[in-house]
Amino acid sequence: MIILDKENKLITLHTENTTYQMKAGAYNVLLHTYYGPRLPGGDLSYLLRAKERGFSPNPSEAGSDRTFSLDTLPQEYSTCGVGDFRLPSIELELPNGSRTADLRYVDSEARRGKYALDGLPAFYGGEEEWETLSVLLVDEAAQVEVELLYGVLEKYDLITRAVRVKNRGNGTIRLCRCASLCLDFIRSDLDFITFNGAHVMERCPSRAHLRPGVQSVGSVRGASSHQHNPFVILCDRDANEDYGLCYGAMLLYSGNFLAEAEADQFENSRLVMGLHPYQFCWTLEPGAVFTAPEAAVVCSPSGFGQMSRQFHRGIRRNLIRDPWAGRRRPVLLNNWEATEARFDAERLISIAKEASQLGVELFVMDDGWFGARNNDRAGLGDWVVNEEKLPGGLGALVPRVKKLGMEFGIWIEPEMVNEDSNLYRAHPDWILRVPGREPSRGREQLVLDFSRSDVREHVYGQIKAVLESAHISYIKWDMNRSLTQVGSAALPADRQGEVCHRYVLGVYEFAERLRRDSPGLLIEGCSGGGGRFDGGMLYYTPQIWCSDNTDAIDRLRIQYGTSFCYPVSTMGAHVTAVPNGCTGRVTPLETRGVAAMHGTFGFELDPGRCTREEKETARRQTAFFKEHYDLIQNGDYYRLSDPFQNGPYTAWEHVSPDRREALVSLVTGTAHAAAPLLTLHFKGLDPALCYQVNGEGSWSGDVLMKAGWPLPIPSGDYQAFQFYLKAD
Ligand code: GLA
C-alpha cells in the first residue's frame, strides 16, 4: 500500500510485514525516515534529528541554521559535491565541467500496477498485486530530472527500485555514476553479508561487522561474476535463520556492478547498489534519458529464512516469465562431462538411449557440435552444424532423440569468437578492442562487440537457422570469459564509457528476441557455471547452471549460498561421475542425487558406464524427484544447517504452501567413531497437524519441530538421507 500525504510531502509504503517511509524536509531535500517492521503509519521524521556538527556544511538556503546538513541526515537518494560526503548515488559532469548533483523533491505520484523498464529486466505483475510510486527530483542548476521509481509487492514484502535521469537542459551532460538503490539507516551496528567466490566455488557467504568507512563488493569483469554476486544483506549483528532484522538487496543486472556499505562518523550507515562507476560514463544529450537497472529489497523482521522465502516467491512468480514461471521443467541429461567436445552422432545416441531408460526428459548436446569445434581453440562464432560429426545435421539427429521419448537441446556461446573461425577471419573488427592494443585472450577466445546491433544480427541469424532446422526446445547459453580491452569500433571516443553497459543491453536484447521468436524455448543461463547468476539473467533464463563444480559436497556450499536470494528452481544441478573432475572426491551416487535435488536435477555423465545397481538408483531418484517436483521446486525452503560450519551434516527442507507435506534432505560429512547421536529439528510445519515420516508413525508438527527427529547413524563418509513428511 502506498500512502501519499502530499500536503506534508510524506510518502509511506506498506508491505504485509514492513514499512518504508520518506519525507521531503526543509528545502525539499528528500529524507529517508524509516525502513523496518510494519508500523501503523504516522510521520516518522521525528526520528531524524538535526544537530550542528563540525565540518558538516549547510545548504545555502539554510542561512545561519547550522543544524541542517546533507552530511548528517538520512537521504533517500544521495547526491554529490554539495555537502554529503558519504557514498554518492549519482555523479554528473555538467557542461561547465563541474561534478555535482543537488536534487530536490518536486512531486510524487502513485498508481496501481508495476512500472516496466525499456530493454532492462524487471519484476512484473498485474495491477491487483503491484503498486508503483514515482518521485520526481530536480537539480535546477544542472537542469536534470531524476525520477525515483518504486514497485511495491505487498504480499512478498518486496520493494523494487529504479532510477531514470533526464537531461532537460541545452548542454551535454555526462553521467558518471547512477546507483539504483540508496538505503540509509540511523544506526551502524549491523553486519554486512556478501556472496563471494571464484570459478568452480561461487557464492560463499562472508559476514562481517560493518566497520567505519566503506566496504564493498562488485564486478568489473563485464559480467556479474563468479567472484561477487549482486546480492547483499545488512542485518542485526545477532540475526540468524529465524531471528533478527535483515535487509536483502539484489540488483537485476548482469554486468559491472558495485554494492557498497558505509558506516559514517556518527554511526549511521548507507547501502548503495547499482552500476559500477568503473569505466562508466554515459553521455546525455539534451532531452535524453538514462535508465538505471532495477534493484529489489526485502526486509525481514524475523531472520534470513523468511527473507529468502520472500525473494524465492517473488522471483518464481514475478521475475521468471511464462511459460516457465509455473511450468514444470524437464529432467535433463547433458553430455559435457561424459564426452566434452569429442563426440559424434552415434556416441550421442548411445548416451541418449541410456538416458531415456533413467526417465530423462530432455537430452542436451553441449559444446562441440558446430564449426571446427573439436576442442576449445577453434570454432566459436561459426554456428553451423559440423556435419562430419553429425551427418545430416540436426534434422537427422533430433528425430532420433525424440523417438527415444526425449526433447532435444543445444549449447551456444553467442557472445564469443575464436580467432580460428570463419567469423573472425571475415570480421576481425567485430570484437571488443581498444585502438593500439592487442586484445587479451581468455580460454583462447575473444569477445564479440554485443553493443553493436549488426554483430548481434549476424549471430542471431545463424542461431535462428539452427533452431529452425529441427525441433529444439532448450538452449544452454554460455559465456566463458571476462571482458577486457572494452572498446567498440562503432562508438566515438567520447562514448567508449558506454560500451560495457551497452554490451549488457545487447545481451538482454538478444535473449528477449530468442524468447519472442521461439515461444516455449527453455533457456538455461551459464557463464563457466555461475559467473552470471543474477536476477537480470533470470528474467530471460529461468534457470542458470549453478557452477562447473559438480562435486556433491562442494555443491552443498555453493547451493546453500545461492539460496539466500535465489530459489531452488533456478539452480542448475546435475549428478556427475566420480571421482569428481574438480575435487577428485568420491561420493555415493545416492548423495550426488540428493545434492542435485537442491536444484533443477539432471545428469551429466554417460549412464552406459554405470553398473546395473547405479542405473537403478538413478532411475529411482529421477522418479522420486518427479513425484515431489512441486514440493521441491515451488515449496517454501528452509536451511536447517550451515555447511560452512563443518558440522556433522548439511540439511535443508522444502515445505508445501499448505504445510501438509515436507521433504527434509540431509548429507553427512566425514564419519567418525564414537560419534554423538544427533537429533534434527524440522521447521515450517503446522504444529497442529500430524505427519507420517517416510510412511511410518504419526507425530505432530509441534513435536517434530520442538523435540526433533533422531538421525540415522551414517556408516561411511557423505551419506544422504531424506525424510518425506505427509500430514494424515
Ligand atoms: C562452460 C560450461 C560447461 C560446459 C563448457 C563447454 O565451462 O560451464 O558446463 O558447457 O563451458 O565448453
Which SSEs are present, and which pair or pack?
Blueprint: E1 2-5, E2 10-14, E3 18-24, E4 30-37, E5 90-93, E6 104-112, E7 130-139, E8 144-153, E9 158-167, E10 173-185, E11 190-198, E12 201-209, E13 213-219, E14 231-236, E15 246-251, E16 257-263, E17 269-275, E18 282-284, E19 289-300, H1 303-318, E20 332-334, H2 336-339, H3 345-358, E21 362-365, H4 393-403, E22 407-412, E23 416-417, H5 422-426, E24 446-447, H6 453-468, E25 474-477, H7 499-517, E26 522-525, H8 535-538, E27 543-545, H9 552-562, E28 571-572, E29 575-576, H10 589-596, E30 602-604, H11 612-627, H12 629-634, E31 636-639, E32 649-655, E33 661-668, E34 679-680, E35 690-693, E36 696-700, H13 701-706, E37 709-710, E38 720-727
Parallel strand pairs: 20-21, 20-30, 21-22, 22-25, 25-26, 26-27, 27-28, 29-30
Antiparallel strand pairs: 1-2, 2-3, 3-4, 5-10, 6-7, 7-8, 8-9, 9-19, 10-17, 10-18, 11-12, 11-14, 13-16, 14-15, 15-19, 16-17, 23-24, 31-32, 32-33, 33-38, 34-37, 35-36, 35-38
Helix pairs in contact: 9-10, 10-11
The site of alpha-D-galactopyranose (GLA) has 11 residues, from loops.
